[in-house]
Design goal:
The protein is an alpha/beta fold. It has 10 helices and 14 strands. The model has no long low-confidence stretch (mean pLDDT 94).
């Protein structure tokens, strides 16, 4: 499995909790990793809520996630726009996120970027067409994430990637992904902890995001058999990981064998 990692990147939904319940042993595993001296970061592709709202939502799981340890696509997007010279943005995101991106607002031909996220509360033909026309005018297409679907307590639901795919098809543009599996997203977390990608282990349930990001960055990949794992196995998807474990509860013991 390679040398012992210094930083563990843990996926949230599907890895630490699933369908409204904490994965058995998840909180104990996190506490054990902290006692062993590992630095922790928690990565999620949740793109409908602010980071503060995500933290509040997961408080009931009693996982001990700290604000400075949480990285979401919204964090990545805000960091990107803050570093750009005078970006002009058309955002097709949840109304909940609009205040965060309002300082960069633009429209039509004046846009430098179109940002797409979870927009189920704003998705209509008019807004989709405005995004399309901005892309035809030369704007860059950015996606908070590119998931096909997400799992909830009541079943599967259409995710952001379907909307992004429609805009890619219509405009002929390819989206730049800000969340998982973008290696830039991993790098954001790595820089916060002062480590390199080679010193990271990524732990998650999704071959298309968690494991793909680890592989693209050259980090250790550890897959869990919870969350989306069963769906992807039925689909015949290859789980490209250095280690496959039943759940995150097994992670501390597995890491003792590394290095």
């Amino acid at each position: 499995m390679g040398s012992k990692p210094k930083l563990i990147l843990l996926d949230l939904d599907g890895t630490l909790y699933f369908a409204g319940r904490a994965i058995p042993g998840a909180a104990d595993a996190i506490a054990s990793l902290r006692r062993s001296g590992y630095r922790l970061r928690f990565l999620t592709n949740t793109d409908s809520k602010t980071p503060d709202q995500v933290l509040r939502d997961i408080e009931s799981y009693e996982l001990g996630v700290r604000a400075e340890e949480l990285f979401t696509p919204v964090v990545a997007a805000l960091g990107l726009f803050a570093a750009l010279p005078a970006p002009r943005l058309f955002s097709l995101v949840s109304a909940n996120l609009e205040p965060l991106f309002r300082p960069y607002g633009g429209d039509g031909a004046a846009c430098s970027h179109v940002l797409v996220g979870d927009c189920r509360d704003r998705l209509d033909y008019q807004n989709l067409d405005r995004a399309f026309r901005a892309l035809r005018g030369g704007a860059e297409l950015l996606a908070l994430q590119h998931g096909r679907y997400f799992k909830a307590a009541d079943g599967d639901h259409l995710d952001t990637g379907a909307i992004v795919a429609a805009l890619e098809y219509a405009s002929g543009n390819s989206a730049r992904i800000l969340g998982k599996p973008s290696p830039d997203f991993l790098d954001l977390a790595a820089r916060s902890a002062g480590v390199t990608a080679a010193e990271i282990a990524v732990v998650g349930d999704d071959a298309t995001t968690d494991m793909a990001m680890a592989r693209a960055a050259g980090s250790m990949a550890i897959a869990v058999r919870t969350g989306k794992f069963a769906d992807q196995t039925r689909e015949g998807r290859t789980i490209d990981a250095d280690q496959l474990i039943d759940s995150v509860a097994d992670l501390p013991e597995i890491l003792t064998r590394v290095g």
